[in-house]
Write a structure and sequence with these properties.
This protein is mainly α. The chain has a domain of about 70 residues. Helix content is about 80%, strand content about 0%. Helix 2 packs antiparallel against helix 8 and helix 3 runs antiparallel to helix 4. This is Large exoprotein.
């Protein structure tokens, strides 16, 4: 254990000795360098002081003044050139800025004119569409009126056709036609019966008899129906109205009829359940009507068309031509130059 401690101490001592051996020469050389540098600085300062305090010839002073003047002139020229270059750059920048502002103003005015033109076109299109819609509505109204007139005429025609006088005339014509046909059948039957008897044709005679019977039956049926259809005229019965006996001596006023008072409904009696229920029902109905009116008002306000001058302010502005644009640009440039 003691040997290990001794060995460690020896290693530390050796390391310290090596460090001192390396550090001391370096430190000494650094100290010498610093001392030499300080001496050189002091020597140069002393020489400059001696040179400044010693007498200089006139030529050297003139030369120094000339060089100084040239240097100052050169510096002044450089400063003037730099100032001029800066002024030129600033002027070019200002010209570019004014040009950009003019271009921007022209573009804005052009865009405003284009927007106004587009708005006018949109208004014209809207007016054309409105005129077309009105024309379509008029055509639809005219067609509806024509259809209604057609329906009215058709109804009048049907009513005229179904009028009692027309129906009676039509039935009379039908009865006359049937009566004429039945009479013709009777005549044909009599003729067939006559020819059958004359020419001893039994079949023809039988057909004539049948035809005559059928015609006579039809005529009897029609005469019976016609007699039944005739209106029965009732002689008016004249009844003499009884005379009213008026008493002169004992004339009393006729008794007046007084209606009986009906009981009032319970809804009109204050404080009853029926009245309270009726009041609640009336309140609910009033609230419902108010809600419906408010909803209808909001819907009408939402569906109301927006005015053109509110939706697009550019449409209300007057159109600007090239002369107005040029005058505005000149005024802007003049104000820029004055400021």
């Amino acid at each position: 254990m003691e040997g290990q401690v001794l060995g460690g101490g020896v290693v530390v001592l050796i390391a310290a000795a090596l460090w001192l051996v390396y550090l001391l020469p370096s430190w000494y050389s650094r100290h010498q360098y610093n001392a030499t540098e300080r001496n050189a600085v002091r020597l140069s300062q002393a020489l400059r002081i001696l040179a400044e305090t010693s007498d200089q010839p006139e030529e050297l002073r003139v030369d120094l003044r000339t060089r100084s003047a040239r240097r100052q002139t050169k510096l002044a020229r450089q400063a003037e050139a730099e100032r001029q270059s800066l002024e030129e750059v600033a002027a070019r920048a200002e010209a570019d800025r004014v040009r950009e502002e003019v271009e921007f103003e022209k573009e804005r005015v052009r865009n405003s004119a284009l927007e106004a033109r587009e708005q006018r076109r949109a208004d014209e299109v809207a007016q054309r569409e409105l005129a077309k819609a009105r024309a379509e509505a008029q055509r639809a109204r005219a067609s509806a009126d024509a259809a209604a007139e057609h329906q009215r005429l058709r109804a009048e025609l049907l009513a005229a056709r179904n009028a009692p006088a027309v129906i009676a005339a039509r039935q009379a014509r039908a009865r006359r036609s049937v009566r004429l046909a039945a009479l013709s059948i009777v005549v044909i039957g009599i003729a067939a019966l006559t020819f059958g008897i004359v020419f001893t044709q039994v079949m023809l005679a039988v057909v004539g008899v049948l035809a005559g019977v059928v015609g006579v039956a039809v005529l009897q049926r029609m005469s019976r129906v016609a007699r039944r259809a005739l209106p029965t005229v009732v002689a008016p019965v004249v009844v003499e109205a009884p005379r009213k006996r008026v008493s002169v001596l004992h004339d009393e006023p006729a008794p007046k009829w007084t209606p009986r008072t009906l009981p009032q409904p319970l809804t009109t009696v204050a404080g009853s359940r029926a009245a309270a229920a009726q009041d609640a029902q009336d309140a609910r109905e009033a609230l419902r009507r108010a809600a419906l009116e408010e909803a209808a008002r909001q819907k009408a306000a939402e569906q109301a068309p927006v005015r053109i001058d509110t939706a697009r302010p550019a449409a209300a502005a007057p159109a600007m031509d090239d002369a107005a644009i040029e005058a505005h640009v000149r005024q802007l440039l003049a104000s820029r130059a004055a400021s």
